[in-house]
Amino acid sequence: MVAKVTYEEHDLVASLRRKDDEAFSYLYEHYSGALYGVIKQIVGDAELSNDVLQESFVNIWRRIDSYDETKGRLFTWMLNVARNAAIDKTRSKGFQQSQRQIPLDGEVIQASVRPGIDDYGLKKLLLKLKDEQRLLIDLSYFQGYTHEQIATALHIPLGTVKTRIRSALTQLRALMQ
């Protein structure tokens, strides 16, 4: 029987910085599911989400030295790496062209709080926002639409979209404190 290795966060980070394959396997095994869920919410497509997940772990492996323990937990940093990769993918020309046949319409707009957000404790906070603010946060941060796409789809001036999102983020920040 093989003993399972477990890591304290600081030991895991140190091992990853030494490019320890076993530590990386542990990292993937324990965090890939959560990161995949976040990526899938943004990208939508399962196959493309798997590609973004792999790209995210490659970036994590390559950029582990840029992780700063004083600024937050490893998982939070990894979550940002994965989220940014997913958003970058949705903003790429190839993705945009593949999505031209899928309009941003009432069906997407009505899905203002997506399943899985509970995992991060955000659902209760989002429910405290006005419906229009919750919708804008969902479209921008969880579905990965650009401000321009939101403005076009909702027939709202771009400046208004940006102002409302900024206001919603300010309210969320206040609710979190």
Report the count of strand segments. Answer: 0
Rounded to the nearest angstrom, the distance between the terminal CA atoms is 47 Å
SSE order in H/E notation?
A: HHHHHHHHHH
Report the structural category: mainly alpha
The overall pLDDT, averaged over residues, is 79
Low-confidence stretches: 105-119
Q: Strand-residue fraction?
A: under 5%
Determine the fraction of residues in helical runs and give it as a percent range. over 70%
Main beta sheet, described?
none
- Shape category: globular
Query: Radius of gyration in whole Å, from Cα?
Result: 18 Å
Number of helices: 10
Can you offer a commentary on this structure?
With 177 residues, the protein is mainly α. Helix content is 70%, strand content 0%.
What features would you highlight for this structure?
177 residues; mainly alpha
List the helices and strands and how they pair.
Elements lengths: L8 H9 L3 H23 L2 H18 L10 H18 L1 H7 L6 H5 L12 H5 L3 H12 L4 H8 L3 H19 L1
